[in-house]
Specification:
The structure holds two protein chains of two kinds. By secondary structure, chain A is of the alpha+beta class. Helix content of chain A is about 15%, strand content about 25%. In chain A, strands 2-1-5-3-4 form a five-stranded mixed beta sheet. The longest helix of chain A is centred in the N-terminal third of the chain and has 7 residues. Chain B has a single domain, classed as Cytochrome P450 (Cytochrome p450). Chain B contains 17 helices and 14 strands. Chain B has a five-stranded mixed beta sheet, sandwiched between helices. In chain B, strands 4-14-11 form a three-stranded antiparallel beta sheet. A two-stranded antiparallel sheet of chain B has the order 5-6. In chain B, a hairpin with an 8-residue loop joins strand 12 and strand 13. The longest helix of chain B is centred in the middle third of the chain and has 31 residues. Chain B is globular. Classes of the chains: A alpha+beta, B alpha+beta. Chains A and B meet through helix 2 of A and helix 5 and helix 6 of B.
């Protein structure tokens, strides 16, 4: 049971969630009603509503960034080097322990 | 129960779709013949899909279900000639381009229309809404369509694109003539429905290509400049590609919003308790907008062409067949929506297909949503008792759902 953690910046609320059965971290968040992650486009990288900061990357977890993702991250609120689109973070066997911070949408 | 001839005749008669009465036919089809082979009096035969799930299927697979014949059922269900295709932007306009070419053209635009790019425009949109409603208030007796609904996207979209104000009316007119060739009001003696559509599309394109050339020479802070500077892996888009992106911005931006807003305001006027609720609780704006989009479905159908034989709903379909997804019917599907024929601004969830879905989902949807979220509550906050001065007139179109005219008095107390 791989556990992932979302901390919502606005309220400080922490969501510790089981990622099993979901395709990506965006899906984990949307299915569990994590605030400020909408995932409106379903993972096509066209809406920019699943911006997160990666706080802890588990050892061996690989989620390479495409040029389309880098492009979209240019327009999100306050992007940093830790910025990612949660729809581009796949759920796989190494995802357990991943910690994300969710900024205001 | 309608007979087959009536069904086919209705589905191929634009005037049948003026209003909301056409929904009875789709309710019948969803139950009895959800994948219906449609034979009109003239033109191509096509499959009519009326269920939500089937509409989703064709939108989810842009390879099997190509958009090369155009995004919607064309007038007279006739294919375009090569000369017409050239003017219409077939294979250039992203709505008429298949993968992988489609993605190559669409991806660079996504970030400019994404929610975080659009949300900061809220103060500008608020200012525009105030400007429109101030002008309307001063006149009191207004046309809900021309003076309010149509003004919103004209002032937002054409300003953002960077179109000079003296050209707004002309572009608005060309847009109506391109998209409403089935309505006698927008026709002229020189053109039949198809030649009108193609000719006016070309006029919009010529205007937009001029904008692109201008912004390549002297960039400005507008969307025309963004489109002019688009690149595909470092390679600039051709003038034709960038020009047709701007065409999409104009046609998509002006028309859908005007139609959704006009129908939405009318439905809210007819339900004063919901209008009051919305005016007093702007946090309901998001769900109200989604319900207006579901209810009106400003673009009723999606055309796809099969690129291989397949089977859908127990029917064998052949390569080359036209398939029409009637999303307007999908948005009333009893299997998906609770009380589908009830207009309810608090409805949630509301996974309507008004913007389409998949690869061709409306690029400007965040902009349209924000425009409507700001305008709808504000109209009823300022004018809580709008009165009819006449009946609404609907656009005659098998695709667009919207009003042409609706005379109203905004503030009945002020004479």
């Amino acid at each position: 049971m791989p556990e992932v953690t979302f901390t919502v910046e606005e309220t400080g609320t922490e969501f510790v969630l089981d990622a099993t059965g979901h395709a990506t971290l965006m899906h984990v968040a949307v299915e569990n009603d994590v605030p400020n992650i909408e995932g409106e486009c379903g993972g096509d990288m066209s809406c920019g509503t699943c911006h997160v900061y990666v706080e802890r990357m588990p050892v061996g977890y690989l989620a390479p960034q495409s040029s389309d993702e880098i492009d979209m991250l240019e327009v999100v609120n306050e992007p940093t080097d830790a910025s990612r689109l949660a729809c581009q973070l796949p759920v796989n066997e190494s995802v357990g322990g991943l910690r994300l911070r969710v900024p205001k949408l | 129960m309608p007979d087959v001839l009536d069904i086919d005749q209705s589905l191929t008669t634009p005037s049948f779709f003026a209003g909301m009465g056409f929904h009875d036919l789709f309710t019948h089809l969803r139950t009895h013949d959800p994948v219906h082979w449609t034979k009109g009096a003239d033109g191509r035969k096509f499959w009519s899909l009326s269920k939500y799930a089937d509409c989703l299927t064709i939108m989810a697979d842009p390879v099997l279900f190509s958009t090369i014949a155009g995004p919607h059922l064309p007038p007279l269900a006739r294919s375009l000639t090569p000369e017409e295709d050239e003017k219409f932007g077939t294979n250039v306009h992203i709505l008429m381009t298949d993968p992988p070419d489609h993605g190559r053209k669409r991806r660079p635009m996504n970030k400019h229309f994404a929610v975080p790019a659009v949300t900061p425009m809220a103060p500008l949109f608020t200012e525009i809404v105030s400007e429109i409603l101030d002008a309307a208030a001063a006149r009191n007796d207004v046309d809900l369509v021309d003076d309010i609904a149509a003004q919103l996207p004209v002032k937002v979209i054409l300003r953002l694109l960077g179109v000079a104000e003296e050209d707004w009316a002309a572009l608005q007119d060309m847009t109506l003539r391109t998209l409403h060739a089935q309505d006698a009001e927008y026709q002229d003696a020189e053109h039949d429905e198809i030649s009108a559509k193609v000719t006016y599309m070309d006029k919009v394109y010529q205007y937009c290509a001029g904008l692109i050339r201008d912004r390549r020479a002297s960039p400005q802070a507008d969307y025309a400049t963004i489109l002019a500077q688009l690149t595909d892996g470092g390679e600039p888009f051709t003038e034709r590609e960038a020009g047709f992106m701007a065409v999409g911005f104009v046609l998509g931006g002006l028309e859908g919003t005007r139609n959704a807003v006009s129908v939405g305001l009318m439905e809210l006027m007819d339900r004063p308790e919901q209008a009051r609720l919305l005016a007093g609780a702007p946090e309901l704006a998001k769900s109200a907008v989604e319900e207006v989009l579901r209810w009106s479905t400003p673009s009723k159908n999606r055309l796809r062409v099969l690129t291989a034989d397949t089977e859908l709903g127990g029917h064998r379909m052949s390569k080359g067949d036209w398939v029409i997804g009637w999303v307007t019917s999908a948005n009333r599907d009893e299997d998906v929506f609770d009380r589908p024929f009830t207009f309810d601004i608090t409805r949630t969830p509301n996974k309507h297909l008004a913007f389409g879905q998949g690869a061709h989902v409306c690029l400007g949807r965040a902009m349209a949503r924000l425009e409507m979220e700001i305008m709808l509550p504000e109209v009823f906050r300022r004018f809580p008792r709008i009165e009819r001065r006449g009946e609404p007139e609907w656009i005659v179109s098998d695709n667009a759902t919207g009003l042409k005219r609706f005379p109203v008095r905004l503030n009945p107390e002020a004479r």
